[in-house]
Design brief:
By secondary structure, the chain is mainly alpha-helical. The protein is 55% helix and 6% strand. The protein has 25 helices and 9 strands. A 5-stranded mixed β-sheet has the order 6-5-7-9-8. A two-stranded antiparallel ribbon has the order 1-4. A two-stranded antiparallel sheet has the order 2-3. It starts with a helix and ends with a helix.
Length: 578
């Protein structure tokens, strides 16, 4: 009786009598989503100087919404503002209009997006396998996958594609014209690359497998959905097609192959020596994200194609609907865009962006279906011997079911630092306050890592910073790269005239230097700087025990210092005699 009742509770398909079961499992799903969300909020608000890593790129310039005088004539701020999608900009601008700080909003948004993802992945799973337990498992593994990566936590454009694309999948599978169109519009306004994946899926729906071969669909609704969806996609992408970026064009494959930035240990590693790394596992070039099977319980999803071949052993298979083709369409559309992005390299941004989210959705749903089939099979197997004096099958099935559930629920407890949301902590409070006291139009030069925090916490412009060295747009990166080269040359020159010329050329007001900056180890250990030949020349210069001219000015021109940094006044540097 125990096995039978448990079997009905866990794996009964949806009917009028199981509506309470849907409510229970969905409520449990939301409970875990809220729990994980609160853990994220706890990290986000642990310190007033915490900021998500990628938010430093995509959100700092939004402080202009409340103070338009910030970051004047700032190449970095102007560039990141220019590439921000319209919907993303509008959301933060609207919040700023009512007094909500962009960085505060960026800490709240991930929690909300996580709940929306939970709703849609639950509903999608039930459309494929109408068993509430499967919906719960899909939300559990999807939430764990979301918070073991920083996409959603970043509150940058790629965070919003998660819920909006899941909404598209749900309304597509439900055949809801208007809501599907709205979802496509939102994807286009926040993360336009994925409109192509959605469009591919709409086209693939027109092809069905009948009588042993592929044929055009006989369903009129498929053609109507495709027409509405593609029309919406065209309209939402049209503004992007008609607008040329002032920082373009996109870098070509040939040009990228000449830059060390695109090779291993570079700032934006793309090209790999081994084809496996390039096509399969490369962070930007490969089709499989390294976090695809994180949590590890998602490896179970790989068993789904195998299990579907054994109907008799897994009786719940008969309840899987033909909407499981959604996973195939998503897979094919994503792979197609992955290959097209490689063919048109960098013009459609990075190839891996077209498979990362898609594969996570596929594997989460496959995992939920697989584990539900296995649990159902175990309990069915045990029910056959339930009346035996000692039901060893029952004991085995209960133990195995318990292990499956425990591995799903407890997995995050064994992940150090869960949730893995990559919040960075600014520690140089006095430094931030010092720059905040300076005029809003100052320019700070530095190759030090701490410079990446200054636009966020001091609201002041920096000439360059590793965080902002994004090499995909020639108009932006050619200027940025030249700045880096010029700064390295000036900082490690033996001639003070080079320092003065650099200050004059870029309008530098302050120069921030690490206390160990004039040792060869400092430069050698900075993989970002070592991308540039001028840095390698600086190492040779320092190894010969030469002393840069700038080093000799520290005692004269320092206006701020702490345990690790000196800040030099550029006006002081300009008047020192050569």
């Amino acid at each position: 009786m125990l096995i039978s009742n448990l079997h009905k509770f866990l794996t009964n398909p949806i009917n009028q009598k199981t509506q309470k079961g849907i409510i229970f499992w969905f409520s449990l799903s939301i409970t875990f989503a809220v729990l994980y969300g609160f853990l994220v909020l706890k990290k986000a608000f642990a310190n007033s100087l915490s900021v998500q890593d990628d938010a430093r790129q995509h959100i700092f310039w939004m402080q202009r919404f409340s103070n338009p005088d910030l970051f004047p004539n700032d190449l970095i701020a102007d560039y990141f503002q220019s590439v921000a999608p319209a919907g993303y900009t509008w959301l933060y601008k609207s919040a700023a209009f009512i007094g909500i700080n962009p960085f505060f909003l960026a800490k709240i948004i991930p929690f909300i997006l996580g709940l929306i993802c939970t709703y849609y992945i639950f509903r999608i799973c039930l459309e494929i396998l109408p068993v509430p337990l499967a919906g719960f498992i899909s939300t559990l593994v999807m939430n764990q996958a979301i918070w073991m990566k920083d996409d959603v936590a970043s509150a940058t454009p790629r965070a919003f594609v998660y819920p909006f694309f899941m909404a598209f999948l749900y309304y597509l599978i439900r055949g809801s014209f208007v809501r599907m169109g709205i979802a496509i519009t939102l994807i286009g306004l926040f993360y336009p690359q994925y409109v192509f994946v959605a469009s591919g899926m709409l086209i693939l729906r027109l092809i069905s497998w009948r009588n042993g071969r592929f044929q055009l669909s006989l369903e009129k609704q498929d053609f109507l959905l495709c027409g509405v969806g593609l029309s919406t996609a065209f309209l939402v992408l049209l503004p992007y097609a008609l607008t040329s970026s002032e920082y373009g064009p996109a870098i070509s494959r040939e040009a990228a192959m000449k830059l060390r930035e695109f090779y291993p240990n570079g700032r934006s590693t793309f090209f790999h020596v081994h084809p496996k790394d390039f096509w399969l596992t490369g962070k930007r070039s490969g089709m499989f994200p390294k976090s695809l099977f994180t949590p590890a319980t998602q490896c179970a999803g790989l068993l789904l194609p195998f299990l579907l071949s054994f109907n008799s052993a897994f009786p719940l298979i008969k309840n899987i609907t033909n909407r499981i083709w959604l996973l195939v369409h998503l897979l094919l559309s994503s792979l197609g865009m992955f290959l097209i992005a490689h063919a048109l390299l960098f013009r459609l941004h990075l190839p891996s962006r077209y498979t990362g989210l898609s594969f996570r959705i596929i594997i989460a749903l496959a995992t939920a279906i697989t584990l539900t089939l296995i649990i159902d099979a175990l309990l069915s197997w045990a029910e056959n011997r339930e009346k035996s004096p000692i039901n060893f099958r029952g004991i085995i099935s209960l133990v195995l079911t318990g292990l499956i559930v425990a591995s799903l629920v407890l997995y995050p407890a064994f992940v150090k630092g869960f949730p893995l949301v990559r919040y960075k902590l600014g520690k140089a409070t006095n430094l931030y306050e010092f720059f905040q006291q300076q005029p809003e139009d100052i320019m700070i030069a530095s190759v030090e890592e701490e410079a990446n925090f200054l636009p966020t916490f001091s609201q002041r412009s920096i000439l360059l910073g590793r965080e902002y060295a994004i090499p995909y747009q020639v108009g932006y990166y050619s200027q940025f790269r030249q700045r880096v080269i010029d700064l390295i040359v000036a900082q490690y020159s033996s001639d003070l005239k080079d320092v003065k010329d650099f200050i004059q050329k870029y309008g530098i007001d302050f120069w921030m230097i690490h206390r160990g900056a004039f040792t060869p180890e400092y430069v050698e250990n900075n993989s970002w700087l070592m991308q540039y030949e001028s840095a390698q020349e600086a190492v040779t210069f320092l190894q010969l025990r030469n002393i840069p001219a700038l080093a000799k000015t520290i005692s004269i021109c320092t206006v701020f210092e702490n345990d690790s940094l000196f800040v030099l006044d550029a006006n002081c540097l300009k008047v020192i005699k050569n």
